[in-house]
Each structure stands twice: as structure tokens, then as C-alpha cells.
Structure to design on (722 residues):
């Protein structure tokens, strides 16, 4: 089962290592992880996507709370989820399809971000499963793609 | 007035009413040691090895209930301390470990005696700190002591770079500490408590499953009272020995792999298990799928992550065992009829009669269990008992007549050989009024044997009773039982030290014992010697720890008798 938890932590030395070590030491998976400071506060927000059964998640949440700098662990079925993906195409492969690519990217809140003499970069922002679909569509049609995913970020509704 | 970081360390320890620091100096921590030299408010005990220092701080903490303090230098000083820290962590022992570190500007350069100390101790401490600025130092020390002893206690490590010990700042020790991110729950939820009480009253075969948390929270008087008034049967984990007196009629002994048959059957047959600060360790439950199949669980624990971790829990209560029981007691005692459990206790008493905890004594050879029982008879009732790890540890847990909590100091969670002797020295330092006895084996005693000198120097006469079977006995027992007696690297008969000479060379006293009379004489002499004593007792080489739940078997499948081959 896939689940996303949002962890508010104190912004201090080694806090990311504590969280990541806990997952590694207890054999829990991290599918994706994003971290950034929360503006105008002493906290950071980590968004962790993980796989496991509900019993594992119960332990993950409890073990996170056990870490001293963890302020809050937010579990919700009602997150707004967003992830960014960037795809780089070799220019020679797509130079005749730029309109198509741009149109498709727009369906996924994106656009062509950069074009130079070698490559075209497209960026999109959407729910992780929609990003999956977009990438599948691109991979089906084009070759030699370079893909970067940001990992998911969430906020409670 | 401005103080240096080193002076702040000393002043902070004084503010925390620290009586004694166990430690070992070195390059990175020298400035702090220079300030230790200049003060006379607390004592410093110089050990022979950093591991010894941390185990001593641990033994001191377990015996007194105070925070143990250990101090080591950077690099190897810290890595030598690791086993001691991990031992304290698994048994929830409050401790502050202070280590030196290379100067902040040298961190990350692979400097001499540099190791990523906070990286090393992160998974084996409740929390740790790298002090980067002297301005944070006093607050961090305050926070470290607070974290170590509050909630579920544990070791906290403070790593202080050398330049921070030189830098100066104004010293202000915080009076109180409040952490936004750490608020342990002491009071149990009223509704959860009420539901649990109702379940206890409805149960036909309830059992109190008493764990180390009962010792830590200081709940033993309450538990004794509740057990006496409700007559609900009780079992103890290794960490809880002494919460009930050994002669309490409602105590059915220790539970788990080497627990009593009656205690394990109590868990097996119960319809309600009331866990008081225990954590359903694998050495207690046996095979999980078969554990207490008909029982609902009431789980009281201050650490929420323990609840439901191993066994699904119907009645979870997060809180301090003592405070929860205080709330529970009036409700529980209100029209409870202790005769309700007569039949249940009768069943357990039958189990006890059927397979009592016993051994076959002999006149030809000393049985290790006899030694423990005899020492229990001869020692004062309030003697502090430590153990190392192995067969002797289990025999001690089974056969020593424990009368109060904090009497038994043993590495229960981590199972650290070499723990017993330094822990005994630390306990003696904290409780000078008590006789301190370490039951050990001929394997374990050699790990940290160097601390005889520490006992000599600081006049800490502890008695080591070596149950010497010339084997690494517990491993030997498993090899016999599960590896067709292939004794791979467990026979120690070819090289044994002369324990008399060994003790004497470091200011102790030694006895070799081959008969029961010799043991009694040696024990009396050791008690009167006021020295670190070794009583090297030649015991039956092939005695097994029984009964035994084979690994990954259900509790009811205990091996009770020795298979005569």
C-alpha cells in the first residue's frame, strides 16, 4: 500500500539523517522524500512517500514521533498532492513535434521550459499518478529521454 | 563573568547535582579534564577502558535511579563507549555521555582521532548533540539531562569540539526546559483506563505481565498492593525481577525463554494480559503467531511505539505505569471479588507443582544453581546483584531471591557480555551501604577484567562469583541442543587464567572453589575482605539452563527436563 506522510521537524543539525536512519534501521521503504524549510519558522516540512501495510505505517508514525526534533506527523487521506517532473528530449528527435509536446505538457500544468541547440526540456506539475501517465505517454512516443522527478509534496485541504 | 566551554561543562554538571563522573581523558576532552582537576564538587572515577566507564555509569544509574554520567575523548574514546551506550539504550537507562571532538574547523577533514561521533551514536541514543557554538552549551546540557531521565529514559550523547571548550560565553543555566517537539505523556487517558478496568473485572483468567517500566516508574509499591488485594496472578520479565518479592504467593516467576513453566502457561492460558511497562520481547513471546491466542491485551507503556508493535492491543494506555495505576487502583478495587480468580490461580499452582523451577543437586560436583541459592541465603537481603550474559545470567534470574526493584542489574535487551563487573562497580559507588555481587561466567568476566584496578583504586569491593564451567556455556548449550553437540569454539578448558593471581596482581583477592564448604568459606572471606573478590567456582560443566522455550516455538512447548544422552 502506498501512503504519504507529512512530517514537521525542527530545523536543526542532523534532523534529516535521524529520519532517514530510522527508516533504514527498521527496514521501512522510502519511495520519495522532499524537504524544505517552512518560511518564517524554525521548522522544516518533509514529505515522505512509502510502501507498506497499515501496521508498518502505524509504527512509522510512532517511531517518527519518538525522534526528539519531530514536531508533528500529518497523516491524511485528503492531501492535495503535487509533484514536478522534467523531461529532456534530444532536439533532433523532437524538432518536428514541439507543438504536440507543448500541447500535452499544458494538459499537465506544464510547458516547454527550455530549448537550445541540443535539447528540449519540458516541465510538468501534477498528481504523482498523472505524472506517471504523462511520462508513460512520452516514453511510448520518444526515445532517449532524461527524466527527473521531484518527489511528491502535499498539503492538507 | 564569562566562562569557557570547559568551565560551563563543570558548572552545569554541578547544577545537575552530579556526584560522580566515570571517564577517561584524551586529547580532545583535555580542557574539560583540566577543569575537573580544579574542582572538588563531584568525584571523577578513572576507569581502565571507556567501555568500563559507560557500564559503570549505567550500573550507577540502574542502582540509584539517578542519571549516570560518563566522559570520554574523541575517536576511539567514543567508539569504545559505543557498546556501553547501546546497552543502556536497549534497557532504557538514563545516562549522559560527554565526548570530546576535534575542533569545529577540523571536523570533516579526517583529523587525528576524528570520528563522526553523532553519526555513530544516533541509532543507539535517545538523542544526541554536536555542540557547534559555546553559547548553546549550557542549554544543551540541561536538555540532555532532561531528555535522559524524562519519558522513557535513555542515554543522551553530547559531542563537544575542542575549540568550543576554549571559547567563552556568559554562563546561564536554564531553570526549566520546555521543548515544543517533546512532551511525554505521563497521565493515562481516563476513558482508556476505565475500559481497561472493565476488561480486567470481566476477565476470568487475567495475568499481570510486569516489565522494566514498572521498575523505572517506581510503581512497585502500588503493584504489590494491587496484586495483594486483587489476587490476580503475576509474572515478571527479566527486567522486572524484584518488583514483587520472590516469595509473593501470586508471583508465578519469570516469563519467557527461560522462565518458569507456570509463568509461561499463565501467559498461554490467560484471557487477559495486563502489561505493565513490558514490551513483548521475542525472548518473552516465543513464536508470535501462537502467543497468548485467547488473550486480549491491556498495554500500559510510556512509549507509544511499544504498543501494538508486536501484538495487537485491544486496550492501549499511553502513560507512566505508576500514574496510570494510581488512577486505576480505586476503580479496580471497587467491588472486586478476589475469590473470582481462585480457580485460575489453582490451575497455575498445579502447573507450578507439576514442573517447579528446580535442579538436581549433587554431592560430587557443585551445581551453579546451588551457588546462586546459597549466595542468596548468605548475602544481606538488600544486596545488589549484577550479572553478565549467558547461562549464569538466567540461573541468577531464576534462582536468586529478589526482594526489591533495582536489585538486579543485568543487560536484558542487548545482552552485553562484560557488563556485569563494571556495572557492579558503578552500583557500589552509588550505594556504598550495599553488598554488591556480580554473578558471571568464565567467558564474560574476561571482557572488562581490567576494571579490577578501578575497584582497587577507588575502594569498591564487589564480589564476582564466577560460575566456571570452562565453556561459553549458553552457546555450548545451544550447540548441544540444536547443533548435534558440535562445540565450535566454545570449550575454554585449554586456557583459563589463575584467578587468584590475576586478582592479587591488581589489588583484589581470589578464591578457587571446588566444594560447597569451600564456597561458603570463600564467600564469607570475600565479604570481609573489602577488596574486589573473585570466587572462581568449578561448576558442573554440562548443566543446562532449563526449562527452555526453543527458539521460535510457542511458550507451551517448553523443554522442561534434560534429555539424558
Amino acid at each position: 500500500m502506498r501512503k504519504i506522510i507529512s512530517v514537521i521537524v525542527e530545523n536543526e543539525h542532523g534532523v534529516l539523517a535521524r529520519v532517514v536512519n530510522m527508516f533504514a534501521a527498521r527496514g521501512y521503504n522510502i519511495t520519495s522524500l522532499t524537504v524544505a524549510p517552512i518560511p518564517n519558522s524554525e521548522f522544516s516540512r518533509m514529505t515522505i512517500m512509502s510502501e507498506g501495510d497499515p501496521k508498518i505505517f502505524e509504527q512509522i508514525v510512532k517511531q517518527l514521533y519518538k525522534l526528539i526534533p519531530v514536531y508533528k506527523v500529518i497523516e491524511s487521506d485528503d492531501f492535495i498532492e503535487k509533484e514536478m517532473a522534467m523531461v529532456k528530449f534530444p532536439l533532433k528527435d523532437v524538432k518536428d513535434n514541439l507543438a504536440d509536446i507543448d500541447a500535452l505538457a499544458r494538459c499537465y500544468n506544464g510547458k516547454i521550459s527550455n530549448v537550445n541547440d541540443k535539447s528540449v526540456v519540458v516541465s510538468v506539475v501534477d498528481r504523482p499518478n498523472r505524472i506517471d501517465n504523462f511520462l508513460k505517454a512520452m516514453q511510448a512516443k520518444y526515445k532517449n529521454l532524461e527524466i527527473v522527478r521531484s518527489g511528491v509534496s502535499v498539503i492538507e485541504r | 563573568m564569562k566562562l569557557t566551554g570547559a568551565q560551563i561543562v563543570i558548572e552545569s554538571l554541578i547544577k545537575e547535582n552530579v556526584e560522580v563522573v566515570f571517564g577517561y581523558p584524551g586529547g580532545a576532552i583535555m580542557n574539560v579534564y583540566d577543569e575537573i582537576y580544579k574542582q572538588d564538587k563531584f568525584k571523577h572515577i578513572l576507569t581502565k577502558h571507556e567501555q568500563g566507564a559507560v557500564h559503570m555509569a549505567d550500573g550507577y544509574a540502574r542502582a540509584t535511579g539517578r542519571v549516570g554520567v560518563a566522559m570520554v575523548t574523541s575517536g576511539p574514546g567514543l567508539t569504545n563507549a559505543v557498546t556501553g551506550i547501546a546497552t543502556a539504550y536497549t534497557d532504557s537507562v538514563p545516562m549522559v555521555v560527554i565526548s570530546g571532538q576535534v575542533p569545529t574547523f577540523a571536523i570533516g577533514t579526517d583529523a587525528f582521532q576524528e570520528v563522526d561521533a553523532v553519526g555513530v551514536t544516533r541509532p543507539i541514543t535517545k538523542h544526541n548533540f554536536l555542540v557547534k557554538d559555546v553559547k548553546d552549551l549550557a542549554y544543551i546540557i540541561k536538555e540532555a539531562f532532561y531528555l535522559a531521565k524524562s519519558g522513557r529514559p535513555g542515554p543522551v550523547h553530547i559531542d563537544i569540539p575542542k575549540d568550543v571548550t576554549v571559547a567563552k560565553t556568559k554562563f546561564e543555566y536554564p531553570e526549566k526546559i520546555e521543548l515544543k517537539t517533546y512532551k511525554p505523556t505521563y497521565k493515562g487517558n481516563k476513558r482508556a483506563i476505565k475500559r481497561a478496568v472493565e476488561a480486567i473485572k470481566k476477565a476470568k483468567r487475567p495475568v499481570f505481565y510486569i516489565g522494566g517500566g514498572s521498575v523505572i516508574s517506581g510503581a512497585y509499591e502500588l503493584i504489590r498492593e494491587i496484586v495483594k488485594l486483587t489476587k490476580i496472578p503475576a509474572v515478571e520479565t527479566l527486567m522486572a525481577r524484584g518488583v514483587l518479592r520472590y516469595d509473593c504467593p501470586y508471583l508465578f516467576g519469570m516469563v519467557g525463554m527461560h522462565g518458569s513453566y507456570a509463568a509461561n502457561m499463565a501467559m498461554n492460558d490467560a484471557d487477559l494480559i495486563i502489561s505493565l511497562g513490558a514490551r513483548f520481547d521475542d525472548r518473552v513471546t516465543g513464536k508470535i503467531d501462537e502467543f497468548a491466542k485467547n488473550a486480549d491485551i491491556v498495554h500500559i507503556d510510556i512509549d507509544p511505539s511499544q504498543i501494538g508493535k508486536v501484538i495487537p492491543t485491544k486496550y492501549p494506555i499511553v502513560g507512566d505505569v505508576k500514574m496510570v495505576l494510581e488512577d486505576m487502583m480505586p476503580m479496580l478495587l471497587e467491588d472486586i471479588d478476589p475469590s473470582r480468580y481462585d480457580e485460575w490461580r489453582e490451575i497455575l499452582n498445579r502447573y507450578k507443582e507439576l514442573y517447579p523451577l528446580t535442579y538436581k543437586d549433587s554431592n560430587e560436583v557443585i551445581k551453579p544453581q546451588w551457588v546462586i541459592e546459597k549466595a542468596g541465603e548468605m548475602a544481606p537481603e538488600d544486596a545488589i546483584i549484577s550479572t553478565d550474559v549467558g547461562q549464569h545470567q538466567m540461573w541468577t534470574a531464576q534462582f536468586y531471591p529478589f526482594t526489591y526493584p533495582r536489585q538486579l542489574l543485568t543487560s536484558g535487551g542487548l545482552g552485553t557480555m562484560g557488563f556485569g563487573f563494571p556495572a557492579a562497580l558503578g552500583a557500589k559507588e552509588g550505594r556504598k551501604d550495599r553488598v554488591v555481587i556480580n554473578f558471571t561466567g568464565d567467558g564474560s568476566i574476561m571482557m572488562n577484567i581490567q576494571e579490577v584496578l578501578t575497584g582497587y583504586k577507588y575502594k569498591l569491593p564487589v564480589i564476582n562469583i564466577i560460575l566456571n564451567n570452562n565453556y561459553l556455556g549458553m552457546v555450548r548449550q545451544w550447540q548441544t541442543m540444536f547443533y548435534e553437540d558440535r562445540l565450535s569454539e566454545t570449550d575454554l578448558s585449554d586456557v583459563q587464567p589463575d584467578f587468584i593471581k590475576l586478582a592479587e596482581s591488581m589489588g583484589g583477592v581470589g578464591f578457587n572453589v571446588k566444594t560447597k564448604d569451600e564456597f561458603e568459606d570463600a564467600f564469607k572471606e570475600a565479604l570481609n575482605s573489602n577488596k574486589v573478590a573473585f570466587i572462581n567456582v568449578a561448576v558442573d560443566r554440562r548443566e543446562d539452563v532449563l526449562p527452555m522455550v526453543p527458539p521460535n516455538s510457542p511458550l507451551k512447548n517448553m523443554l522442561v527436563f534434560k534429555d539424558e544422552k
